[in-house]
Predict the structure.
Amino acid sequence: MSARQMCTFFGGDAAHPLGLASAMATQKRQSGKRSGKANPAEDEAVYQAILHALLEGKLKAGVKLAEPPLADIFGVSRERIRKVLHRLGAERRLEMIPNRGARVPRPTLDDVRRVYEAHRVLEAGVLTQLVRRVDDALIERLNAHLAEERAAATRGDRAASVRLSGAFHVHLVEALGNAELSRFLADLLSRSSVMVSVYEPATDSICAVDEHGAIVEALRARDVARAIAVSREHFLHVESRLHLDDDAAPVSEDLTAVFAAIKPKRRKR
Amino acid sequence: MSARQMCTFFGGDAAHPLGLASAMATQKRQSGKRSGKANPAEDEAVYQAILHALLEGKLKAGVKLAEPPLADIFGVSRERIRKVLHRLGAERRLEMIPNRGARVPRPTLDDVRRVYEAHRVLEAGVLTQLVRRVDDALIERLNAHLAEERAAATRGDRAASVRLSGAFHVHLVEALGNAELSRFLADLLSRSSVMVSVYEPATDSICAVDEHGAIVEALRARDVARAIAVSREHFLHVESRLHLDDDAAPVSEDLTAVFAAIKPKRRKR
DNA sequence: TTTTATGAAAATGTGCACATTTGGCATGGT
DNA sequence: ACCATGCCAAATGTGCACATTTTCATAAAA
């Protein structure tokens, strides 16, 4: 359950967009070859595909997303791509420059710090509200999640560790049941997921399980001050590990390779 | 200064969009009559005009925003309007229904409560972080703002009171200097500004100045618990005043009247 | 009278052609 | 060798025509 929630933000597996894309392709085939009208889910499929690639970190920071190649890769009209790109731009997931197209944003170190600080501040508020409505069921759920985290850590599954670490904080906000707050956190996480690939040291897990456990303990004890203090230390700890990696990596990924698994129908020359 | 900040969210005066629109119209005239190409700021002008109307509450909840009439009113092509509408939809400021156009969202009472709760939780986090970096200058600024609020209240200026009440909370987040947090609050306020016109009792000021003063006092004393408690009470107080006004007001505003001041160039039959 | 069917007008969605702008490359001048 | 200028291919932006869908009004049937 927790894994699926994270999937919404990070896109743990690539099965979902692929399924959508192929289903879409089938439907398109049956409507002739170039009727070109009325595909309500086609936008969504392309949107999800690009979004997943973005959140998975397959699209590196600074990469140019030109319309013609994408239209060719996905086998849709350029306007379709265009609309999706602008939508992603409006959601601040892509950087749109007038007359110069869309690029994957290249966050500065200050940007990353700002996102982490926002998350820290938000979680302080969440914890404040959460101690007012803790019950055994919530503690139970959080402990179950901690068990998952520990299991992943002990078996050395780094990918699962990172995913579950993020999911823990998602659990905390979701416990409040407020869609606005959940959306805001999702926004922050989606932004930091791109950042991780730039600034995060790949050598270590993002969040230490112990610190998560301490937060749960403080929650169980209804100790607001301690919960906030632990959470704050936790975030500062993570932030201190950020390092600048601007060693001029002009990763000129070609888009065909990134989206190869999604749409095996691109035929060039 | 504070008034101008709020203007970004609520749009206190309609002078700005008008200026943009008329300037745009002039530029368009000089390029012939229907060259129809290359107006980089035209999108922005239309966007700002609709956004301002939305935030000012001139566009009532549930109103349909059809493309043809808007294109006629603003004197631009339908595609232009279309793009702006979809952008506002991506920002969740308009409700987009496939094949059925754009409508001003009609928030439920639960929606309103959710927004207020989110603001409450966010402010708890902001205050927690803020007590760590209070200085005399901040207290000074907040007190100056309180003075403005009191002045508006004593002279019975309801519009200014409402505006300044919101601006107080903006001041609190802006004091942290975190753009992500400021954006989130702006998002919440822009949503509630639409809601106010539906659920808020028009008879009373939104925020009591005394409660704002109590928050500042707690901040000056570096008393986190008290600051949060006062803030919480403050919000609950406001929330308790919400009332359901679903008495079927099918306000079928025609768009021409709403945007009349913006573009006096619409010629129909 | 209420409900259902039907068709026309209006509104939304989309591909396409074309204008404009950008970026790179070659050429020529200092 | 270096910088400036101009040209050409590619990419972005936009209006337009047309397909599809919705909506509304009118008429027909229960």
Remarks:
- Strands of chain B lie at 64-65, 95-97, 101-103.
- Residues 109-240 of chain B form a domain with the Four Helix Bundle (Hemerythrin (Met), subunit A) fold (CATH 1.20.120.530).
